[in-house]
């Protein structure tokens, strides 16, 4: 199995998990603010990492090396995730995801500087075509920018930074170590931000089910995303996430009666075409790049 195909399979799991998290996040957004939501999500995720990692005997892989890079990555993600949850409560899901999907554009443009990956003509063309599809779906109006749209757009930039720093971490850190510091650091950030006003709301019994889904889905999504980034270039992995757009558009229509605009389908088709172009170009490239991007959890665990 080629690295690109393996990454595509991992991203299928990430897409499912992220979509589940969006639905659960909207369910609890009326009861908890975004900082409280992130606090409980991170606490649940931390418990899962410790439980599963302990059961599998992999907690020894947790390393304190590169804590500065972990912190930088988690500040980017924490900020982006809060903005993302905020946008979910303000604008339709399809629009949130469409604006979020400008993130691969930032990844493709910044990867050469941060990761040393080459920006090939095929990657640049695929990113441009995908961006045109996003514009068709979102149809942003600069004269009347909504807070929700601005939050989703800013989240995309933060997610791009998180993805790039995650890719750098996969070169020397195991997935268990990355997920542990993800949940641990964001628990501290969530506690500090949620308690800044001196009040932290305790979830109602009904809210614990979606909160558990958020914690489990968030951890699963990052496990899949980190696994994909470990076997393929970031500028290839992130555009695969475009597939979330048609999925969440259908979810929004079925669960929340959000209109399924025909232009959403046209834009999604353009985005899928861009992904196909990107993947086809990568399959034809030499495989030596995939060898360079393999993660080294076994070296870390020894």
TrEMBL record:
Would you tell me the protein name for this molecule? Answer: Drug/metabolite transporter (DMT)-like permease
In its UniProt entry, the species of origin is given as Rhodovulum visakhapatnamense
Instruction: Tell me the PANTHER family matching this sequence.
Output: ACYL-MALONYL CONDENSING ENZYME-RELATED, SOLUTE CARRIER FAMILY 35 MEMBER G1
Question: Where does this protein reside within or beyond the cell?
Answer: Membrane
Q: Does the keyword Lipoprotein apply?
A: no
Give the way it sits in the membrane: Multi-pass membrane protein
Gene Ontology annotations for the cellular component aspect, listed alphabetically: membrane
In what residue span(s) does the EamA domain sit?
Answer: 6-138, 148-278
Q: Which family does it belong to?
A: Belongs to the drug/metabolite transporter (DMT) superfamily. 10 TMS drug/metabolite exporter (DME) (TC 2.A.7.3) family.
- Where are the membrane-spanning stretches? 38-59, 124-142, 148-166, 178-202, 208-229, 262-279
In which domain of life is the source organism classified?
A: Bacteria
Keywords attached to this Swiss-Prot or TrEMBL record, sorted alphabetically, are:
Membrane, Transmembrane, Transmembrane helix
Could you confirm whether the keyword Methyltransferase appears in this record?
no
């Amino acid at each position: 199995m080629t690295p690109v195909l393996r990454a595509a399979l991992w991203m299928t799991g990430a897409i499912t998990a992220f979509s589940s998290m969006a639905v659960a996040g909207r369910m609890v957004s009326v009861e908890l603010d975004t900082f409280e939501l992130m606090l409980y999500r991170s606490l649940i995720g931390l418990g899962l990492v410790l439980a599963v990692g302990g059961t599998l005997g992999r907690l020894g892989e947790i390393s304190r090396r590169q804590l500065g890079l972990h912190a930088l990555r988690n500040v980017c993600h924490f900020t982006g995730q809060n903005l993302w949850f905020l946008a979910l409560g303000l604008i339709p899901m399809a629009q949130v995801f469409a604006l979020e999907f400008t993130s691969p554009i930032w990844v493709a443009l910044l990867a050469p500087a941060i990761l040393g990956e080459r920006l090939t003509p095929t990657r640049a063309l695929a990113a441009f075509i995908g961006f045109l599809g996003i514009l068709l779906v979102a149809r942003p109006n600069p004269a009347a920018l909504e807070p929700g749209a601005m939050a989703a757009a800013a989240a995309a930039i933060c997610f791009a930074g998180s993805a790039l720093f995650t890719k750098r971490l996969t070169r020397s850190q195991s997935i268990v170590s990355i997920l542990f510091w993800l949940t641990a650091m964001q628990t501290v950030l969530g506690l500090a931000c949620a308690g800044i006003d001196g009040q932290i709301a305790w979830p109602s019994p009904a809210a614990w089910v979606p909160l558990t889904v958020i914690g489990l889905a968030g951890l699963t999504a990052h496990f899949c995303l980190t696994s994909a980034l470990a076997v393929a270039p970031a500028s290839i992995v992130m555009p695969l996430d475009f597939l979330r757009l048609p999925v969440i558009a259908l979810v929004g229509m079925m669960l929340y009666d959000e209109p399924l605009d025909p232009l959403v389908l046209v834009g999604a088709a353009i985005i899928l075409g861009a992904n196909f172009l990107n993947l086809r170009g990568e399959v034809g490239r030499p495989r030596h790049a995939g060898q360079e991007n393999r993660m080294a959890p076994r070296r870390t665990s020894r």
